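User: Continuing from earlier, I have the next pair ready.

Assistant: Great, send them over.

User: Here they are, in order.

Assistant: Folding the first of the pair now:
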Amino acid sequence: MHNFPKELENKMLILEKGYAGEIEFDKFTSNLPSEYIILNDLLLEFKGHKFQVDSLIITPTSIHLYEVKNYEGDVLYKNRKLYNLHSKKEIPNPAFQVERSNSLLRQLLAHYSLPHADLYSHIVFVNPTFYMYHAPFEDPSFIFHYQIAKHFQQIQVATHSESSQLSKIAMTLSNHQLLDYPTHSTPDYKFESLKKGIRCLYCDSFQLSLSKFELRCELCCYSEHVKSALKRMVTEFALLFPKEKLTTNLFYEWCNSYKSKDSLQRYLSKYHPISGKGKATQYLVAEQTDKEFN
């Protein structure tokens, strides 16, 4: 593995952990009614004030703002502050950020004469290992892992409003989405310096066992369809090395000799357009199809 500066490595771990938390949150929202509108990763601005929203769900009767946290371990809530019980150090209370976002979003909706009275804020702790002592009952509400499924059952209502009104809210917010989303320092890395192989989608372990159609993690027992895992590997390669040409040999090395070159070549040939012939053959990632899932 490449040796990154400690500070940068910590930032990368925080970003990776946050992303994993958002993926876990998305699992709970995937079964909401089709008329509900879900907007993720919003960066908005009102009167010169920027604010971020992890997820916003617009229902026929209310709007729900979510801040997703992947905290773990034991935390004490005291006087609106959070303390790690192990280190005794104070950690950021996301309630302050959420209250600010709620206020600015409410003002933004009111500015365009859009419904905003039933705007609710929630801080969702998706990690089942996280526990908060003396958790408050207040707005924004704290929702813990065991409460998430019940929460989404409760926000589903029988009454419906005109879909045009929901779409108008979503369109207004989408039009205010800022394109200059804050970026983070990108570490200096090379293909040769990175650890190769297919990781578990759930826990990032490389300890996977292969059956005919599935990869199974030996640590967390998570299973993933082989085609899904290969598609993920292609996407990650293209993201990390946008200027590299994807060839069978390179993909074989990227997957750490997973299966055989022939099987990987068959996968690439089936789902990716081919450019060139013979040793010059490469596969076009940008035009990847999804027909394996149809």
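And the other member of the pair:
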Amino acid sequence: MEEQQVEPAPAAVKARRNAFDRDAVAEHSKALKMKDVTFQNDIRFLTGLGEFDRVLGGGLVQGSVVLISGEPGIGKSTLLLQICQNVGKNAKLLYVTGEESLEQIKLRAVRVGVDTENLLLLSETSVNKIIPEINAVQPDVVIIDSIQTLFDENYPSSPGTITQVKQATLQLIAKAKEDRISILIVGHVNKDGAIAGPKVLEHMVDAVLYFEGEKQNTYRVIRAVKNRYGSTNEIGMFAMSAEGLEEIEKPSE
């Protein structure tokens, strides 16, 4: 059954109207010659997992939004927590969970050896409260687990609907580009193996990764089906163990 399109609450309409009025009198954007566009040499940073970095095209790009999808229990949260441990040596991270309690996240983190002091945990599903917290702690990397649990308070539909997924993603993308924050978004897959939610979600983000494997098997594969900053011909391989995911650098051996 298709979701009924709902109108935003009056407060949201008023906010949009005020923003439009401000934009109307503000100075318009100006075009630049390509040779005048500059960027920092450290636009990418490594996650500490070579298999993951290779699939991304050489590391995580500052200000990028990456969607990671996979079946429940396949190891997405474990993968992201291990990334937190490595990235946390030199950067601050905010892990936003909408499905598990902070205690559950910590238990898994301890199991895979995550002890970085640069990792902050937040249990929240309202994107209207998540954005201010991002502004407050000013992280370098934000992890959203998962996008299907978030909602915008200005829209009355339930979390996981087309409207809510789209609006929450739009706000996260705007924050990533504005403050050069890298955001990793977890997305569920449906029974057909496709990412749950609107197809437009895949078009909105910078990269779409699939984390796959059989639950009864230890091997996991991560591959990119979209990557604005690299190739989609690379795959990364891992083996799941009691201590977490281990990289398989030479799968033929």
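Worth noting for the second one:
The radius of gyration is 19 Å. Helices lie at 10-25, 50-56, 76-87, 102-111, 127-137, 162-179, 200-204.
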